[in-house]
Each structure stands twice: as C-alpha cells, then as structure tokens.
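hey m, so remember when u said the tokens were messed up on ur end? i reran from scratch. heres the input so u can diff it against urs
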Amino acid sequence: MKRMAKKGTGKLEGLCVLVLAAGEGTRMESSLPKVLHPAGGKPLVYYILRLANALKPSGIGIVVGHQADDVQKQTQDTARSHAFNRPLTFIRQKSPTGSGGAVLEAVPFLKKFQTAVVICGDTPLLTYETLYALVNYHREQKCQVTLLTAKLANPRGYGRIIRSPLGDVVKIVEESEASPKEAAINEVNSGAYCFETQLLMDALKEIKPTGPKREQYLTHALELIRSKGGRVTAFMSSTPEEVLGVNSRIQLSQVERVLNRRALDRLMLSGVTVVDPSHTYVDTDVEVERDTIIQPGVVLKGKTKIGRECKIGPYSYLEDTQVGNNCELRFTQAVAVRILEKSTVGPFANLRAGTVVGPRAKIGNFTEIKASRIGFGSKVPHLSYIGDTDIAEDVNVGAGTITCNFNGETKNKTVIRAKAFIGSNVNLVAPVTVGRGAKIGAGSTITEDVPDGVLAIARARQVNKS
C-alpha cells in the first residue's frame, strides 16, 4: 500500500533512529570503512545522519563495528560540522553477526523508546519525505512493523517482498533462496524499517544464526513478529532509486551519479544554466546563484560558492572556492581561493590556497598564483608565477614574471604597490617591495626595494662578440 507523505516538522514523540554502520564492506576492496567512502563530496554516513537529525527523534543510535574508532570519530566530526543537534549514542558490535546481531547489540538503547526506525548507513539516496511518510504510515495503520520497499526494473541482488492477498507482508525471500516465481517479483526490500520496539526486542531474542557465516538476519524478526499476530506492512517508495545501497565501487558510482543529478537539478531549478549536465560534476554543498552559466567539463567541489551572472568553464575545477558576481573562468583550477566580482581567470590558470583575486582583476593563461592578493583592476596576463605576494590596485605584471619567494629555508613576501608596471621576464627576489608607480625594466632581477615612481633596471649590459 502507498500513501502520500504528510508534511510536518514536529517532534515525533517516542521515536528513535538506529543506524547500522558496522559492516566491513568487503566488496568495496578498501581499507576505508564502507560508510566513510565519499559520494557527492560527503561520507556516505553524512546522508543518513542528515535524515535522522531531520526526523527530530528523541535519540539516534549508531552501531559501529569494523574500524569502530575511525567510524565513530568521523561520524561525530560530521555531525558537529553540520550542526546536527540530536543526541548520538554509539553501540559497538563486537563480532560481525549480521544485521539482526547488530540490532540485538542495540537493545539497551532501543528499550528507551516506543518506536524505532532502523536504516542502513550505506543508503545515501533516501529522502526525508519518504522516511517521514514511512513513520506516519506506520502509526496511522497501527502496524507493528513497516518496511520501506520499491519496485525495481532489475531487482537482482535484493530480497523479494511476498505479500498476502490483503497486501500485508508475509515474508522477505532472499534471492539465493527464491523460487523462480518469487524471483520474478520486482518489489524489493530497502533495508529501512519502522518497528514497535518492544516486539522487536522480543523477536531478536529468538533469532537463530543461519547460513554459512552463521549470521542473524533482521528480516527473520519480521517473520517472528508476524507469527505472533503482529501486523507487518510495507510502504512503497515512489522513487525506486532511493533504495540503492552501496556494497561495491560500481554501486558507489551509481549513487554518485544520482547525487550529482539531484545537485544539478537543484541548481537549474534555481535559475542556473548547466549546458551539459552529463559532463558537469557538483558536490552536495555547492551553491550557485541565478543566471550563471556552467559549461561542460566543470567540477565544483566542497563548499564552493558562485555568484550571479558568471561564466564558469569549460573544464574548470573549483574546490572550496568563492566566486563573486559577473566573473568568467575558463580552464581554471582553484582550491581554497576567493575570486571577487568582475574578475576573469584563465585559460589554464592555477590558483592555490589563500589567493584573493580582484575585484576586476585579470589572471591570464599559464599563470600560477599562490597565497597572494591581486588587487582591484590588476593584471597578471600570462606565463607568470606569483607566490606570497601582495599586489595593490592597477598593477600590470608582464609575461614571464617570477616572484622568487623561497630561499631554501623560508617563504618570503613580495609587495607591489599601486600602479606599478612590471616588465616581462622579471625576477623579484623576496623579500622585496616595488613602490607606487614604479617601473621594472624587462629582464631585470630585482633584489632590493624599488622606491615610488622610479625606473629600475637590473640586468647586465649586452655584449656582441664575433
């Protein structure tokens, strides 16, 4: 049975959320715990924490096992950095005894609550609307267990839902144990459940280890509850992709594509033009304002923010970077950079951490800027390296200019005052200051400060020999 979600933001009294995040994820072939693998710029567990926090439960329990200390620390850091304010309780699963064993370890936590939502930590595509609707449906129908299901065109690998003629769930059949008729069923188990807690705890005590790994399966608890007269129903998601879990790198890439599509849809609906969504990659936290155009090949990562009426790309990579209004970037890499309004960058520019460009500045082709400020209207048009430098307004830096900021032991600062002109192929050996309105002759190597308004030339006299 299916019902539309009720809108609401009130606290759900007596509700807890239990997140299963103890799995090793052997099919990931990785030393990193599965729930810490990134998708959309966030660890998988972030998406489940966000959902759990949005439900406003009385408590959130997280079952950890494989590399428990690492999972717990990053989960806590994630919750803190995103201001998730619901209390977290961590439960250690001492040995990998399956999903039923994981929930059994959480009984001391569960017994404090009337109703429990149990979800897997590797299902980042679940939405708040669906989970909220699942809880509402469970309560309205006065069920003892409600599980979230979906109909998949290709249900391979998922447990099949066997319903009674009245629509209640009779059992969940794992694919390896399904008859041909059962395997043809395309309604599958998502791994998200809503339980009345006391009945769940009673059933957990009776679950027997099965299979070659002697594991306890949570799905067996549903059958035990039903056998004792409890009502087990299913709420079907209207968006089948929500139930996709991550058990391999292939499934991780599938999740990444969905998260990317959702992020791009959000931007386009807010007034951003994405020329080719199939070749544009945007993390979950990226913000772009209206009337900006994103060309193919653009990658926007982390906490990148882009203002109005910008042109980004083609083939630009921005990470944790802020771009002001009316900027244009082409073939640009920028990490932890601020680009202020009406500035242009590229093509083939590399802006490194700590750089501030503009406003109305120009960074040209094959130029690298590191930990520097490029002032109002200043230009570094091409083929230059500017590091640890403060450039004031209306400065022109000629082609091939290098700030020699490292003496082998320390980084030193270069200062270029307003309206200075730096000729082509100049070396500025830091620490050094170029005065306001000063000019540096092409090919000079400057090792001493240049006063305001003078012409400095530091090169050997030309000698022609036959």
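this time it looks ok to me. Residues 64 and 71 are 7 Å apart (CA to CA). if urs says something different then somethings off w ur setup not the seq
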